[in-house]
Amino acid sequence: MLGRVVDALGVPIDGRGALSDHERRRVEVKAPGIIERKSVHEPMQTGLKAVDSLVPIGRGQRELIIGDRQTGKTAIAIDTILNQKQLNLKATSESEILYCVYVAIGQKRSTVAQLVQILSEANALEYSILVAATASDPAPLQFLAPYSGCAMGEYFRDNGMHALIIYDDLSKQAVAYRQMSLLLRRPPGREAFPGDVFYLHSRLLERAAKRSDQTGAGSLTALPVIETQAGDVSAYIPTNVISITDGQICLETELFYRGIRPAINVGLSVSRVGSAAQLKAMKQVCGSLKLELAQYREVAAFAQFGSDLDAATQALLNRGARLTEILKQPQYTPLPIEKQILVIYAAVNGFCDRMPLDKISQYEKMLLSTVKPELLESLKGLVHIYQGAAPAAEMPQEPPQPQSMGTSAVPQQTPPRSTAEEIPLAVARGAAQEAGESLWQARYLSELCDPGGD
């Protein structure tokens, strides 16, 4: 079924003939139990700087994408699918490939066709399955489509492989279920939804899990999408899904129209379990990023009322504006994790502080083209999770602590206790130190972008 577009019953609708192979699976199955599960510890890279640094996602996690219409919810999902292209090419075994299932619920046929074209041009259809229950399909098919897509993703999960499933969006599934329930004369509840609408989504999202080693160590990661009305996250369906999932990425219309894209509200977005799967290098580099952005938002709200600002406040505003600018990213251009680490390192440590805001993107491109290739290769090695503990004789010596390259130093993490985690942490610190040496040279690029600068 990879590379095909099917309906809620698994029948192809892409005009490329019938499926070559058939396997019947139950659409509604019981979610894995507690003993069959394992804690989330493997990263699932989205290719978005704002997500991988601030709200990291792990394999087996359920991360909600919530926001008003036309705020970029589907764009985040598509970028995540496109980012798996390079990662899957580097995979050395079938168990390292991440397969993607995209479930379109209640969308226009033209929107689904546009999505197929985007994935096809990026050669991403070869590891993807599209399940479409469009707006013209009956309500029972829109209700059934997420469960059918989940059954396809469970095939990979139960066979020791990894899969990502995107439900776009569950608000329309709830509306379809409300239509069916009202026609069946079931008593309506809050917002006319039936009383079991919570069970509708909980039994679906609980099927996304990371399996234990005894049951194959496969995983199914879920990215459900919920559309809000006028930013009301306290409505019935949004609060239900927020309570079920392991975190949420909140998108705001105001940020979108201000040109901050992806329009992620860092203060409301959270990842409850994904930080355990975040790479050590990324965790070390962006340790103070969320705090600085929070302080920037707080100070910026008061700075507009007065012009007399002390030097510390002005520096905070200056740094926060550049951190916000560095997290912007064009659509359909996911960035490898090793390049994300370098860019965020440069921003957090003050190398962009004297750059004009409109030159930040140019500085980022020049930095990535100037940095040593050996550094990128060393950071690429951290993408793979080190699972075996090395003997004491083979343990590499930990490099010296990296020096501060700007106004703030890289935050130091508490050294992990396990031997298996000390190795990537030591490599991360060495890579961070080498990044600092490279960035001292790259700092002169700012003079090319701003010849009249200080």
From TrEMBL:
What are the GO cellular component annotations?
Answer: mitochondrial inner membrane; proton-transporting ATP synthase complex
Per its UniProt record, what InterPro entries does this chain match?
A: ATP_synth_asu_C, ATP_synth_asu_C_sf, ATP_synth_F1_a_nt-bd_dom, ATP_synth_F1_asu, ATPase_a/bsu_AS, ATPase_F1/V1/A1_a/bsu_nucl-bd, P-loop_NTPase
Native source organism of the sequence: Dorcoceras hygrometricum
CDD domains, A to Z: ATP-synt_F1_alpha_C (cd18113), F1-ATPase_alpha_CD (cd01132)
Q: How does it assemble?
A: F-type ATPases have 2 components, CF(1) - the catalytic core - and CF(0) - the membrane proton channel. CF(1) has five subunits: alpha(3), beta(3), gamma(1), delta(1), epsilon(1). CF(0) has three main subunits: a, b and c.
| Chain intervals with Polar residues compositional bias | 407-417
Q: Where is the ATPase F1/V1/A1 complex alpha/beta subunit nucleotide-binding domain?
A: 47-271
**What are the GO MF terms of this UniProt record?**
ADP binding; ATP binding; proton-transporting ATP synthase activity, rotational mechanism
Q: Which family does it belong to?
A: Belongs to the ATPase alpha/beta chains family.
Role according to the record:
Mitochondrial membrane ATP synthase (F(1)F(0) ATP synthase or Complex V) produces ATP from ADP in the presence of a proton gradient across the membrane which is generated by electron transport complexes of the respiratory chain. F-type ATPases consist of two structural domains, F(1) - containing the extramembraneous catalytic core, and F(0) - containing the membrane proton channel, linked together by a central stalk and a peripheral stalk. During catalysis, ATP synthesis in the catalytic domain of F(1) is coupled via a rotary mechanism of the central stalk subunits to proton translocation.
Describe the location of the ATP synthase alpha subunit C-terminal domain by residue ranges. Answer: 278-375
Compartments, record wording: Mitochondrion inner membrane
In its keyword annotation, does this UniProt entry include Mitochondrion? yes
Q: Looking at the record, which segments are called Disordered?
A: 392-418
What name appears for this protein in its UniProt entry? ATP synthase subunit alpha, mitochondrial
Keywords for this protein: ATP synthesis, ATP-binding, CF(1), Hydrogen ion transport, Ion transport, Membrane, Mitochondrion, Mitochondrion inner membrane, Nucleotide-binding, Transport
- Give the highest taxon in the source lineage: Eukaryota
Q: Which SUPFAM superfamilies match?
A: C-terminal domain of alpha and beta subunits of F1 ATP synthase, P-loop containing nucleoside triphosphate hydrolases
Pfam families reported for this sequence: ATP-synt_ab (PF00006), ATP-synt_ab_C (PF00306)
